[in-house]
């Protein structure tokens, strides 16, 4: 029987913040991994954790690690609806204003493992605000898992798949015909490490962030850079 030893593996600053504020103070011995290169079979075997939690990891976890310990990830969709990449952006693009965070046991098939529990979250605000809000919800879910040991249940229903968004998809589409759709496009990309919403014109890129939706306008920050390799260089 394993001791109460746990690992949190995450690459995002909001999850690291919440780990240091809350999670590492839970009962048990806690370890934090923040670099993909640190997640090795040898390290997992040495620490011998009861659970490895993956809030916002965004990297493939080797099957050998999945087979030697219980790995739990957290997905911002009501699985099996929304399996796949970029759930927050895909949900907002589809007009959702709320969703759930699903805690599931990781398996070889992406986002297809059995579910421990779900918790509701709002999709209002900028992407980084949503991610931080989610990080606190995930911390509460981790506490439930380590203290109550819920038995995961198999997913029920036909899966709906999301595709991971490409950086090129951050360009503001020409078919946005109202301020709310434009605001949603800008805000859903406004987080550290994500390609900001942008326009290109005259050899320049205009990156737009921190949108504020008003009655008849959007106020936002704009960063202007020269497009590399432009003929006018």
| Strands, total number | 11
Q: Helix and strand succession?
A: EHEHEHEEHEEHEHEEE
Distance from first to last alpha carbon = 65 Å
Helix content: 25-40%
C-alpha Rg (nearest Å): 20 Å
Task: Identify low-pLDDT runs.
Answer: none
Query: How many separate helices?
Result: 6
Main β-sheet, in a few words? 6 strands, mixed
Overall geometry: elongated
Structural category is alpha/beta
Please state roughly what percent of the residues sit in beta strands, choosing from under 5%, 5-15%, 15-25%, 25-35%, 35-45% or over 45%: 25-35%
- What strand line-up does the widest sheet have? 2-1-3-4-6-7
Nearest-integer average pLDDT = 94
Short description:
The protein has 233 residues and is an alpha/beta fold.
What does this structure look like?
This protein is α/β, with parallel strands linked by helices and 233 residues long. It is built from 6 helices and 11 strands. Strands 2-1-3-4-6-7 form a 6-stranded mixed beta sheet. Strands 9-10-11 form a 3-stranded antiparallel beta sheet. A two-stranded parallel ribbon has the order 5-8. Strand 9 and strand 10 form a beta hairpin. The longest helix is centred in the middle third of the chain and has 22 residues. The model has no long low-confidence stretch (mean pLDDT 94).
């Amino acid at each position: 029987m394993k001791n109460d030893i746990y690992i949190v593996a995450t690459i995002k600053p909001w999850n690291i913040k919440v780990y240091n504020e809350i999670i590492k103070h839970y009962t048990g011995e806690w370890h934090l991994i923040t670099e993909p290169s640190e997640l090795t079979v040898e390290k997992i075997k040495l620490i011998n954790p009861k659970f490895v939690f993956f809030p916002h990891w965004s990297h493939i976890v080797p099957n050998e690690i999945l087979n030697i310990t219980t790995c739990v990830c957290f997905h911002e969709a009501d699985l099996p609806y929304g399996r796949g990449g970029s759930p927050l952006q895909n949900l907002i693009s589809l007009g959702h204003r709320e969703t759930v965070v699903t805690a599931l046991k990781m398996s070889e098939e992406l986002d297809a493992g059995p579910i421990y529990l779900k918790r509701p979250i709002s999709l209002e605000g900028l992407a980084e605000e949503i991610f931080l809000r989610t990080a606190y919800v995930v911390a509460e879910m981790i506490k439930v898992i380590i203290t109550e040991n819920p038995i995961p249940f198999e997913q029920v229903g036909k899966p709906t798949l999301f595709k991971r968004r490409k950086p090129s998809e951050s360009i503001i589409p020409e078919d946005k015909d109202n301020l709310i759709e434009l605001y949603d496009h800008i805000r859903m990309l406004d987080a550290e490490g994500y390609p900001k919403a942008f326009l290109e014109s005259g050899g320049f890129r205009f990156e737009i962030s921190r949108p504020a939706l008003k009655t008849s306008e959007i106020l936002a920050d704009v960063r202007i850079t020269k497009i590399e390799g432009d003929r006018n260089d």
